[in-house]
Design the sequence.
């Protein structure tokens, strides 16, 4: 059973340049994935691949000139694209919660932490302030903040980065969301703190049967905290599957490059499959595979739009040269 | 072993906060040695003082106390002109290549600048040398006429490295050179650094919070916590048998990008405290799972662990009770 | 602009196209700046070709034609010395540019290096420089100018130097603010690391990146210079009659105003207003164009 179903999502930046011509940056070009309750999906890819944009498209937080131009977004049976603003607002922060990077700048600096939690709750539920306050203390305790009663009265600037991120997670939990989207939740935090935050997130998914999506560029996080992963490149998901399967047997040439570039693989002494290079121009994407310019397997067939290849049990890759990649052997 | 190219002793840096006048004890008595052709990895969380140490080594910052002996000369006390002359021999690469290059200068002029400042080469000689350097950092010479704004992150970092190696320095400090780069680009830069170190024989100080990367490139490692070295030693020794409780927890929090590695977790509570009000005794006492009363009295000195050059600063090591339980 | 010169022909063309596109875009967004530019061009033309466009010699006294009203022969009438007001107004535009341009150059030459140095060094040096600058700013500049010009003598050179020095603090502030913002990017530190002396850091690395704000201010500051110099002349301290400077002419004209001989003072007054307005309107557009923050806000 899936909770969030994204099908063929296209998000473009449509604007006019100084010469008054319409320009279109095709940032997302047919993104499809599912997230089920109790499962963590890791969305990985390089800067500009469209990871965060996917999340913002889902929860309806796109700012012009970005616009969802095509695709279906279904959450819990509801068609997200046809909901009115009020309904989307109700969903966001209610059933779908978002945890962003830079936790400190995401908190209102002039309002005490507890007050912010209470407000989020009361914006979505008809409840007494007393009950909301009660729940806020419970949630602060649930995310492992010591002395939650006192912390309610803390100002955001008094919190360390890790504490602020915990408060944001507590805020995300205030309305018992069915899904949490975490956009680079630990970027900028130290490793020891990162471990605490991710443990907490994982535990919440398991104990509360929440669906989660972690957006990250850190394959270490994906390897240890996600069940499934989706690899994005230039606005498309190019490979998806169970984390262990993908790491063991990456099928798309881009995924292979990514995994071969991890320090762990490099340390095994194998030469990296160097995949550096400029990301494709979103204003002028190639007609076929977007990775074609950087791909060592590329041939004429890659000029045609690639098709999804079913590899095994839920492991799929968007590549026309899958046979050649397979023939090249495992990493 | 042969003579070190750089020896830091008792390196200390205290800052005064502008408003309240409190003293921030960023670095407290750090000492280490660096050898030609070897890479020292320096790890620690934010606030551990690792960038400050790097900046003192290249004399971007003047140490409050301590000495930095570079090629048998104390450079900690030098100033002005004398420091500037050192620059051809002491270089640094910064974390963020986007902001490390003057946006109004073409790549060619950027790489040429150190030659212009430190050598008596003619314009033609410089031009040839710039092309040579560009090739040695595996950068297309077509990029030389571009401005930094037209280059990708990986290309920019190659330009920064090209600038750093232009004058064949004996020592290069790399302050998180790959942290802001995408993974696939990162690998290329690491390979390049490895290659340059072998070719040039420069000593490198590699500062990073990413343990995987440090492990990949370093021969020797320094673990910093609150401005103190809490553990040091040959890379494999420290990674295979970390002895300071902090090193143990730090390594256990690292997430290798391989789902088959099972994590052995020592959960560490809380975060690195402020370097303003530091209690006497061990800097790690507020978070250490093994803390006891005498940890709060004296600062434990770095003492040898085994005979392979590993050292750690923990009073429990002598008793063998320093292992953090899982 | 130096970039243009080095670039290949193909790049040149696209850069010019781009610049033209910007100008077209600017004229759509800010038509006032284009009008302002037109006014400046108009006065610039008058100043350049004054000898050709002037109907009479501007300082030729003619006792027979004293204080005649506007007529076909003398469109703007004649003044108390019988000089042709139109010719004097036209010639006066030379003084307007002759003051505005050198004043801005003096102010830039002083203010930019000080601003660079203060922003780069920071700390006590910055503190001291900025206090001095503030002291300059709070003291009414017109009084200071009056005192200094009165003491040093009312030559054009003195007027230019004094107004230029008084205007430098503006540029100190603007440049310093940009340098402070640039200090957080690493390229300055990276410049130190490769061994740049402070002089090179300031003028090779910081200056090109910190100058756009100051350049954007030039037209507005030029307007200010024209206004102040006219004020000085009006008060009888600056350039002296019968030199055909607008402020001096307005001062002369004021005496005749009460007798109904309005043309002596009104025409140079209108010219002054137009010139200052034109510079200010253009200056506003210039700030839009050169200051990226204002550019995005303008959209």
Sequence:
């Amino acid at each position: 059973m899936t909770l969030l179903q994204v099908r063929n999502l296209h998000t473009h930046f449509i604007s006019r340049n100084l010469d008054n011509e319409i320009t279109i940056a095709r940032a997302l070009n047919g993104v499809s994935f599912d997230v089920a309750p109790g499962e963590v999906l890791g969305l990985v890819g390089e800067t500009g691949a469209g990871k965060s944009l996917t999340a913002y498209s889902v929860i309806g937080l796109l700012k012009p000139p970005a616009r969802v131009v095509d695709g279906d977004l279904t959450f819990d049976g509801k068609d997200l694209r046809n909901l009115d603003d009020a309904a989307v607002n109700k969903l966001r922060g209610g059933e779908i919660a978002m945890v962003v990077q830079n936790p400190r700048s995401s908190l209102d600096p002039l309002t005490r932490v507890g007050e912010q939690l209470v407000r989020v709750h009361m914006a979505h539920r008809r409840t007494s302030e007393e009950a909301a306050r009660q729940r806020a203390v419970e949630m602060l305790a649930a995310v492992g903040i010591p002395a939650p009663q006192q912390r309610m009265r803390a100002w955001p600037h008094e919190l360390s980065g890790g504490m602020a991120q915990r408060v944001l997670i507590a805020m995300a939990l205030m309305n018992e969301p069915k899904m949490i989207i975490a956009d680079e939740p630990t970027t900028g935090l130290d490793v020891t703190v990162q471990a605490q935050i991710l443990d907490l997130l994982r535990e919440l998914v398991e104990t509360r049967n929440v669906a989660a999506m972690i957006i990250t560029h850190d394959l270490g996080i994906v390897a240890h905290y996600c069940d499934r992963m989706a690899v994005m490149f230039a606005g498309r998901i190019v490979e998806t599957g169970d984390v262990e399967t993908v790491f063991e047997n990456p099928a798309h040439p881009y995924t292979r490059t990514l995994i071969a570039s991890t320090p762990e693989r490099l340390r095994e002494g194998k030469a990296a499959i160097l995949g550096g290079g400029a990301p494709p121009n979103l204003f002028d994407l190639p007609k076929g595979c977007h990775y074609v310019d950087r791909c060592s397997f590329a041939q004429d067939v890659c000029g045609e739009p690639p098709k999804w290849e079913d590899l095994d049990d839920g492991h799929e890759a968007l590549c026309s040269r899958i046979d050649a990649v397979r023939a090249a052997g495992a990493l | 072993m042969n003579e070190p190219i750089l020896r830091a002793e008792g390196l200390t840096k205290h800052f005064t906060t502008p408003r309240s006048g409190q003293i921030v004890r960023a670095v407290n008595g750090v000492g280490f040695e660096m050898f030609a052709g070897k890479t020292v990895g320096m790890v620690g969380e934010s606030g551990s003082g690792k960038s400050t140490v790097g900046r003192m080594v290249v004399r971007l910052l003047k140490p409050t106390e301590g000495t930095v002996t570079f090629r048998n000369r104390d450079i900690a006390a030098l100033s002005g002109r004398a420091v500037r002359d050192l620059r051809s021999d002491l270089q640094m690469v910064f974390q963020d290549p986007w902001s490390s290059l003057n946006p109004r200068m073409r790549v060619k002029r950027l790489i040429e600048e150190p030659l212009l400042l430190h050598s008596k080469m003619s314009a033609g000689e410089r031009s040839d040398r710039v092309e040579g350097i560009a090739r040695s950092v595996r950068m297309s010479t077509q990029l030389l006429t571009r401005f930094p704004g037209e280059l990708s992150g990986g290309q920019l970092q190659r330009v920064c490295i090209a600038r750093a190696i232009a004058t064949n320095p004996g020592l290069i400090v790399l302050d998180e050179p790959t942290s802001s780069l995408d993974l696939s680009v990162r690998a290329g830069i690491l390979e390049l650094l490895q290659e340059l170190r072998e070719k040039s024989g420069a000593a490198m100080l590699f500062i990073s919070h990413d343990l995987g990367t440090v492990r990949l490139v370093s021969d020797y490692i320094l673990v910093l916590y609150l401005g103190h070295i809490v553990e040091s030693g040959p890379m494999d020794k420290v990674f295979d048998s970390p002895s300071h409780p902090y090193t143990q927890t730090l390594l256990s929090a690292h997430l290798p990008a391989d789902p088959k590695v099972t994590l052995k977790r020592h959960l560490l509570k809380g975060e690195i405290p402020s370097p303003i009000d530091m209690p006497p005794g061990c800097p790690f006492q507020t978070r250490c799972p093994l803390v006891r009363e005498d940890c709060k009295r004296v600062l434990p000195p770095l003492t040898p662990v085994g005979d392979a050059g590993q050292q750690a600063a923990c009073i429990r090591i002598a008793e063998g009770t320093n292992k953090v339980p899982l | 602009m130096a970039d243009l010169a080095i670039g290949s022909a193909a790049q040149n063309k696209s850069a010019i196209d781009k610049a033209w596109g910007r100008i077209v875009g600017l004229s759509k967004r800010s038509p006032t700046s284009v009008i302002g530019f037109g006014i400046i061009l108009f006065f610039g033309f008058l100043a350049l070709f004054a000898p050709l466009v002037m109907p009479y010699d501007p300082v030729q006294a003619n006792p027979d034609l004293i204080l005649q009203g506007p007529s076909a022969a003398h469109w703007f009438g004649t003044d108390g010395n019988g000089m042709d007001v139109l010719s004097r107004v036209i010639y006066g535009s030379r003084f307007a540019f002759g003051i505005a341009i050198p004043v801005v150059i003096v102010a830039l030459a002083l203010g930019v290096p000080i601003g660079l140095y203060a922003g780069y060094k920071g700390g006590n040096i910055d503190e001291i420089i900025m206090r001095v600058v503030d002291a300059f700013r709070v003291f009414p500049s017109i009084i200071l100018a009056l005192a200094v010009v009165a003491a040093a003598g009312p030559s054009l050179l003195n007027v230019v130097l004094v107004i230029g020095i008084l205007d430098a603090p503006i540029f100190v502030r603007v440049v310093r603010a940009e340098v402070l913002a640039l200090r957080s990017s690493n390229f300055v530190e990276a410049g130190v690391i490769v061994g740049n002396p402070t002089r090179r850091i300031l003028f090779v690395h910081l200056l090109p990146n910190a100058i756009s704000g100051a350049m954007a201010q030039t037209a507005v500051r030029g307007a200010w210079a024209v206004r102040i110099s006219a004020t000085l002349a009006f008060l009888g301290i600056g350039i002296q009659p019968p030199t055909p400077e607008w402020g001096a002419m307005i001062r002369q004209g004021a005496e005749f105003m009460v007798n109904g001989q309005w043309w002596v003072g009104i025409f140079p007054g209108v010219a002054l207003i137009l010139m200052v307005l034109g510079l200010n309107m253009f200056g506003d557009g210039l700030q839009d164009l050169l200051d990226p923050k204002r550019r995005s806000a303008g959209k």
Notes: The longest strand of chain A covers residues 22-35. The first helix of chain A runs from residue 51 to 58.
